[in-house]
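Researcher: I'd like a candidate sequence for this fold, 403 residues long. If you have to choose between options at a position, lean toward the conservative one.
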C-alpha cells in the first residue's frame, strides 16, 4: 500500500483524498501517513476483518470526493493518471463513469508460468482497442457487454480498476443495496455499471497499474469463498439456481455465478435473457473435464457420478476432445475460448513491454515516466542492472519487495 500512496503523491494534481481501509492488518498505516503529513490521507479500520465487498463499501462510505477510484493492494496510479482522468471528465461534461485501459505489472515469482514477471498495457474491450481518443461508450454496446457477462462470456474486463465512478451515480443506486456485492465485487459493480449508467466514456489511455505480487494474484487467483448467508439470499433468484449452485467445480466460476444471480435479482427488468445457467454448467463441466484429465484422482469417477445425466454426457464429450487434442498436439486454449470469450470481440488484449530488470512496481512506474525519453530511459536502467548483478554475484535468493 505504501507504493500506492507514493504514486498518488507523485501526481501533479493535488486535489484528492486517499482513504486507506486498514482491514485489521498488522501494518502501521497511521504512523506512515503521519510521516507524510498530507491532509488528504485518511486511514479507517473496522472493528473486525471484513470480506472484500464489505471492506470496499466501508471505504466508499467515507468518501467525499466527486469521483471514486479503487486501488487494491499492489496497485498504483500510473504517471499523471489523475491528469488524464481530469481531462476526460472535463472534456465529456462529467460522465457517470470512465472505462479505461490499464497497465498490468506482475512481480517476479508471482506467476509460475512467467517467473520473470512482466509489464503490459491491457485493453479490456474491443471499443478501447479501436478508440483513437476518449469517446462515449454507446448504451447498446454496454448492454451487450453486460448481457455477455451474464452468459459467462468475457466481452470486457471486469476489474474495478478499469472503472472510475462518479460518486453521485453510485449514490443513485442506493436502492439496490451496497454498491459492491457478492464474493466478486468487481463483476457485480462492472455489470451493474455497464447496464445502468446513463453515460460511460471509453478512455484508451491507462490511468492505473494493476499489480500482481506473490501475495496477491488477482480477483480470480485467490477466490474468496462466498458466505453461506449471502448465497442464501440469491438461491431463488431463478428456477434451477439452487441446482447450479450445488454443481461441483471451480469456486472462481461459482463466485461469478453468485455475482450474476445478485445482479439479476436486483435488476430483472434490465436482463430479460436472465443468467445463462446452461452456460454456467458447461463452464464448470469444461473445468472438471480438463482438471480430471490432466490429474485424475481417486475421486474422479465418484464426482462425475454425482452429476445429472446431461452434465455427465457433456463431461464425457469434452474429455474425449481433450484426449484427441493432446494426441494431435493441439493447444487446448481454443476450446476454452469458445466457451469463455465472445468470438466477435476476442480476449482482453495485453501488449507486453520490455523494460529490463525489475524488482517491484516502482521500477515499472519509473520506466513509464520516461518511456518516451530514450536517453533518460537508458540512464534509468543502469541502477536496476547493477542491483541485479549484485544479487547474482551474492548467489542468494532474490528478495522481492511486495506492497
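Model: Candidate sequence:
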Amino acid at each position: 500500500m505504501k507504493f500506492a500512496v507514493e504514486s498518488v503523491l507523485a501526481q501533479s494534481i493535488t486535489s484528492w483524498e486517499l482513504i486507506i481501509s486498514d482491514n485489521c492488518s498488522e501494518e502501521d498505516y497511521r504512523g506512515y501517513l503521519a510521516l507524510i503529513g498530507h491532509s488528504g490521507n485518511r486511514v479507517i479500520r473496522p472493528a473486525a476483518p471484513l470480506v472484500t465487498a464489505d471492506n470496499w463499501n466501508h471505504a466508499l462510505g467515507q468518501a467525499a470526493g466527486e469521483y471514486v477510484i479503487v486501488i487494491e493492494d499492489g496497485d498504483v496510479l500510473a504517471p499523471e493518471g489523475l491528469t488524464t482522468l481530469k481531462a476526460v471528465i472535463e472534456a465529456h461534461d462529467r460522465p457517470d463513469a470512465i472505462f479505461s485501459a490499464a497497465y498490468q505489472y506482475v512481480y517476479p515469482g508471482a506467476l509460475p508460468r512467467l517467473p520473470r514477471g512482466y509489464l503490459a498495457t491491457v485493453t479490456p474491450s474491443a471499443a478501447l482497442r479501436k478508440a483513437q481518443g476518449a469517446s462515449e461508450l454507446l448504451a447498446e454496446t454496454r448492454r451487450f457487454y453486460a448481457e455477455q457477462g451474464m452468459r459467462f462470456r468475457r466481452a470486457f474486463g471486469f476489474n474495478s480498476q478499469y472503472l472510475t465512478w462518479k460518486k453521485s451515480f453510485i449514490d443513485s443506486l442506493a436502492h439496490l443495496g451496497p454498491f459492491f456485492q457478492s464474493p466478486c465485487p468487481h463483476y457485480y459493480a462492472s455489470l451493474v455499471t455497464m447496464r445502468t449508467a446513463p453515460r460511460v466514456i471509453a478512455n484508451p489511455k491507462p490511468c492505473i497499474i494493476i499489480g500482481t505480487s506473490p501475495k496477491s494474484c488477482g480477483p480470480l487467483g485467490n477466490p474468496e469463498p462466498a458466505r453461506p448467508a449471502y448465497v442464501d439470499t440469491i438461491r431463488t433468484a431463478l428456477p434451477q439456481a439452487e441446482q447450479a449452485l450445488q454443481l461441483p467445480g471451480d469456486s472462481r466460476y461459482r463466485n461469478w455465478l453468485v455475482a450474476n444471480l445478485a445482479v439479476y435479482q436486483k435488476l430483472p427488468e434490465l436482463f430479460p435473457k436472465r443468467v445463462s445457467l446452461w452456460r454456467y454448467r458447461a463452464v464448470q463441466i469444461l473445468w472438471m473435464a480438463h482438471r480430471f484429465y490432466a490429474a485424475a484422482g481417486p475421486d474422479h469417477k465418484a464426482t462425475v457420478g454425482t452429476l445429472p445425466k446431461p452434465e455427465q454426457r457433456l463431461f464425457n464429450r469434452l474429455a474425449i476432445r481433450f484426449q484427441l487434442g493432446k494426441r494431435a498436439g493441439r493447444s487446448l486454449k481454443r476450446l476454452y475460448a469458445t466457451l469463455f470469450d465472445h468470438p466477435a470481440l476476442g480476449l482482453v488484449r495485453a501488449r507486453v513491454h520490455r523494460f529490463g530488470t525489475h524488482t517491484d512496481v516502482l521500477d515499472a512506474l519509473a520506466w513509464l515516466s520516461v518511456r518516451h525519453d530514450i536517453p533518460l530511459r537508458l540512464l534509468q536502467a543502469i541502477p536496476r542492472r547493477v542491483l541485479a548483478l549484485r544479487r547474482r554475484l551474492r548467489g542468494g535468493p532474490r528478495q522481492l519487495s511486495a506492497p
